[in-house]
Amino acid sequence: MKTEAAILWEPGQPWSVEEIELDPPKAGEVLVEMVASGMCHSDDHAVTGDLPAITPLIGGHEGAGIVLEVGEGVASVAPGDHVVFSFVPACGQCPSCADGHSNLCDNGAALLVGAQLDGTSRHHARGQDIWTMVCLGTFGRHTVVNEMSCVKIDNDIPLELACLVGCGVTTGWGSSVYAAEVRPGDNVAVIGVGGIGAAAVQGARLAGARNIFAIDPVEFKREQATKFGATHTIASIGEAFELIQQVTWGRMCDKIICAMGIGEGSQIGPIMSLTAKRGRVVVTNIHPASEGSIDISLCDLTLMEKQLVGTIFGSANPRSDIPRLMHLYRDGQLDLAGMVTREYALEDINQGFEDMKAGRNIRGVIRYK
């Protein structure tokens, strides 16, 4: 079939919206008509080169849509089903999946290659194969994905909001609830209040945090953070020390979630200074792939038992946590609508990313229908 998608032909270039040829799904695959796609910073990392990616590439990995056709052997979804994509295709059988950590499924090794899991492509343009962001390519009106990437949800949940749970919301919420293990009464700081940070604030609130410090240089984002549950807002890491020290009576933060657009190794030391004894810093955001060192006092780790940990997908299990978050949304405990600042047509994708980088959006969403 012919459809339309946004392609990154080479790093550093803008997204090019053009016609593509899409093959039907093969065994174990699903054809999906997209309804909406979130515009995550990770897609821009492919443009800047901070995240290695093979081009030409159809971007997008935070999407939701309606199943049109399934390939041989597909059993978990059927035509007409509403699905959210998990950006990690979870097989349920590898050691990580079997151990309850499907965010670390062995299929993750294929994500930056961009091909289908069998090593071939279903997307074509200008007479050549086109790869897809983490085997999804949600910046297209239609896409073919593996069944393992599809999580079925109830049909009454708005897909233009549900798409956020495919990456940013689950990643941020899980960073607080799972990776940081926020507990009732904890003092928590969230650094960066974009799509991931806003969800991390909500996760900390739902987990019972006493004080939630939202740190972001953009005034608009600080204002939005209070709507999601932040109790205090600060413009910079440097300014945060005195306020956190005062509010916590010198204890500092039990948990810190790093959710900046792009991390810098030189920031880790100052971030550790905001952390309490036995406190935990969770690095959720991407650091440049070329960065090989950080600035940190290792005495913080030994003498004060501070912890520095990483997480992908918020250490969540997509097949259980995506439906869980949908229930929280339905029950009014998770604000998804408030996270969508603007909707864009596919043709306006480059403007959407400019707005993201300028700090004008918590999350921009491409709306297809």
Keyword list:
369 residues; alpha/beta; Quinone Oxidoreductase, Chain A, domain 1; Rossmann fold; seven-stranded mixed β-sheet; six-stranded parallel β-sheet; 11 helices; 26% strand; globular
Tell me what you see in this structure.
- By secondary structure, the protein is of the alpha/beta class.
- The chain folds into two domains: 2-166 and 336-367, Medium-chain alcohol dehydrogenases, catalytic domain (Quinone Oxidoreductase, Chain A, domain 1, Alpha-Beta Complex); 172-311, 3-Layer(aba) Sandwich (Rossmann fold), CATH 3.40.50.
- It has eleven helices and 18 strands.
- It has helices spanning 41-48, 95-98, 159-162, 168-179, 195-206, 219-228, 237-247, 268-273, 298-303, 318-330, 349-357, and strands at 2-8, 16-22, 29-38, 57-58, 63-70, 82-85, 123-125, 128-132, 142-146, 150-153, 187-191, 211-215, 232-234, 253-258, 275-283, 307-310, 340-344, 363-367.
- The strands form three sheets. Strands 3, 5, 6, 9, 10, 17 and 18 form a seven-stranded mixed sheet that branches. Strands 13-12-11-14-15-16 form a six-stranded parallel sheet, with helices on both faces.
- Helix 4 packs across helix 5 (195-206).
- It is globular.
- 51% of the residues are buried.
- The mean pLDDT is 95.
